[in-house]
Amino acid sequence: MTLERVQTGLALLVGAFVFYTAAAGPYEGMIQRAVFLALVIALGAALYPLGEGKPWRPLGVAIDLCLVGLTMAAAGYIVVNYETIMAALPWATTLDKALTLGLVVAVLEFGRRTVGIVFPAMVAAGLGYALFGHLLPAPLGHRGFDTAFVTETLFLGDLGVWGMLTGVAATVVATFVLFGALLLHTGGGQTFMDLAMRLGGRQPGGAAKIATIASGLFGMISGSAVANVATTGNFTIPMMIRLGYPRPFAAAVEAVASTGGQIAPPIMGAAAFVMAEILGVSYVTVMLAALIPALLFYLSVFVTVHIVAVKRDLALVPADELPAWGTIGAPRRVLPIVAALGGLIGGILIGRSITTAAFYGIAGLLIAFVATQAMRLPPREMARRVLAGFTDAGKGLVIIGVLLAGAQILVAMINLTGIGVTLSSMIVSLAGDSAVLVALIVALVCLVMGMGLPTTAAYVLVAAVLAPAMIRIGIDPLAAHLFVFYFATISVITPPVCVAVFVGAGIANTGWLATAMEAVRLGAVTYVVPFMLLLYPGMTMRGGPVAVADAVASGLVLVAAIPGVLSGARLTGARAVDLVLYLSAIGLAVWPNPVAPFAGLALLVMARTLGTRRRVRLA
Looking at the predicted structure, is the pLDDT value of residue 619 above 60? Predict the structure, then answer.
């Protein structure tokens, strides 16, 4: 049996497990999580074999088999002894310690293989701190915990490896990953791309707008900014370069648009589900709270792209390269997407769990796909596409499962040692209870801690350590968590460790630093919007219609003014006057007064109108 067949078989097994438990309901919490993690580790060993292509590959096979065997043994132990563990809270034995060590090493090792050394090193540091933190001086030192207590916390209960984050990965996130993979493989991916081309292709900066729309649509489903750049970027970046776009600009557009998909509902890189669990609120609450910031982000990218395209006279996409509306809107392409979204939304509206609603979406998608393609595609091809969706979902869950299990270990150690409370107290003490200073410090730390990490892992890390500091000074918990989430997410386009930029620059064959500068300019509004969450409760759909309108007006001013400042868009035609007007509008937008944002919006509209009339007269 070839390695490829093993990979496909295990991926299908993971996908089938997710599909079955979404349909029939999950097993008991720890059992569901144990089986899921065991399957994910086994698939990870097949997808990321140690020492592949190296002379010492036989040793790698032995290590992989050992890690998979230990994980299976640990998971089996939990399944067999679940009732005893939950009822008796047993003391850790030597066997428990050995299984815990093997499981933790497996999670760290496969985390290293999938996303690099940074995140596993953080988890290892958390474990080291729990075991040896008593050797540190105050205020960082703690009373100390032995291996037996750490084992009981990590393995013999539902607060360690088998905790909430692993549970979210094994249920809600896994089901949505399967939903997205099936949607893309049954034709949704091509429909998204064609729709993006049709909507943006014939506008100024059309190719960049295609990248923005397509990457946003894909990013909302894929859950990874870097993976999104690598997939859609292979189409959009060469197209932009062919039409004369500067290479750094082309790469930056793709990197920023892909990053935006992580902060846009419904999935938000899987962080929406994790956030809902941490805060104890409904998923719909988180999704609605993230809606206005996401719309402002994409609107700002569109405005910036438009300004740059007009100034540089960038070429439009040729009309003969655009797909026809009739093709895009054909029932065979539209109905599966409508059925998928209809099933998902319908399930939410009738009060089903998010996992069950996602299953309804999957069921609707598959039924509509078979019904619309039965006369066009042979059964073998339809089955191949569906199986490809299951396979891709299984492969995608390796990274998510391993990362969230690792994040759960880290969070367990943070809670056990109390270091999160200690650090938040230090931040508040350093800032002197100033909300502005606390927010600035937290923003900078989030950017640093999020560098090189996938969206969900970055969010979990900063939420455990930094969000409490903001909540402690009276900031709304939902706004605080969204604040740290946004800054951890945009670290992928923030120098120096801007991994989405690295991938985009590699595709464009250009320097990463120039690309990063373009990316920061394109995504500039995203660095400001999180602070608006603290100033305007309406930004998270709270406070009533007036508060929401106030937040939207403020956001629109920022969307128009910040790109105008950075890209040199004309208002009156006099650069110095335009700069003063833009800065005045920004000042009004951030002034916490109900009338100020509307005044700023009126200022920009009036200046733009007068400037246009003046240019018409001179022409």
Answer: no
85 φ, ψ (degrees, to nearest 5): -60, -45
Question: H-type helices in 155-200, by residue range?
Answer: 164-168, 174-183, 189-200
Residue 154 phi, psi dihedral angles, 5° rounding:
-80, -35
Looking at residue 108, its amino acid is L
Provide CB contacts within 8 A for 323, sequence distance 6+: 194, 197, 198
CA distance linking residue 256 with residue 522, whole number of Å: 7
Angle made by CA atoms 127, 133, 136, in degrees to the nearest 5 = 150
- Please report which residue ranges of 243-319 form alpha helices under DSSP H: 247-263, 271-279, 283-289, 291-312
Burial of 37 (0-12, 13-18, 19+ CB in 10 A): buried
Alpha carbons 583 and 576: distance in angstroms, whole number? 11
Q: Residue 372 and residue 369: Cα distance in Å, rounded?
A: 5
As a whole-number percent, the residues of the chain with pLDDT over 90 amount to 17
Cα separations in angstroms, 77 against 45, 71, 96: 21, 10, 9
534-543: burial string, b at 16+ Cβ within 10 Å, e else: bbbbbbbbbe
With cut-offs at 50, 70 and 90, classify the pLDDT of residue 221. Answer: low
User: Rounded to two decimals, what is the model's pTM?
Assistant: 0.80
pLDDT tens by residue, 125-172: 999 999 998 888 878 888 888 899 999 999 988 888 998 888 888 888
Q: Where are the domains of the chain?
A: 3-164, 542-619
Residue 580's pLDDT is what? 87
Pick the closest to residue 450 from 440, 460, 442, 458 (CA basis).
Answer: 458
Structure tokens at 310: 């007009």
C-alpha span between 608 and 22 (Å, rounded): 53
Query: What CA–CA distance (Å, rounded) separates 246 from 249?
Result: 5
pLDDT, tens digit (0-9, with 9 covering 90-100), for 71-100: 999 999 999 999 888 887 778 889 999 999
- Structure token digits, residue 238: 């060469």
| Interatomic CA distance for residues 248 and 246, integer angstroms | 6
Cα–chain center distance at 379: 35
- Phi and psi based region of residue 126 (left: phi greater than 0; alpha: psi -120 to 50; beta: remaining): alpha
| 280/29 Cα distance (integer angstroms) | 17
The model's pLDDT over 258-286, given as tens digits with 9 standing for 90+, comes to 887 778 777 676 677 788 888 888 888 88
Answer yes or no: is pLDDT of 210 > 90. Answer: no
- Per-residue b or e along 431-460, where b marks 16 or more CB atoms closer than 10 Å to that residue's CB: beeeeeebbebbbebbbebbbbbbbbbbbb
Q: What is the pLDDT of residues 304-363, one digit of tens each?
A: 887 877 777 777 777 777 778 777 778 888 888 889 888 888 887 887 888 888 899 899
- Asked, as a colleague might, if the bond just before 496 is cis with ω within 30 of 0, I would say yes
Cα atoms found within 13 Å of the Cα of residue 35, Cβ hemisphere only = 19
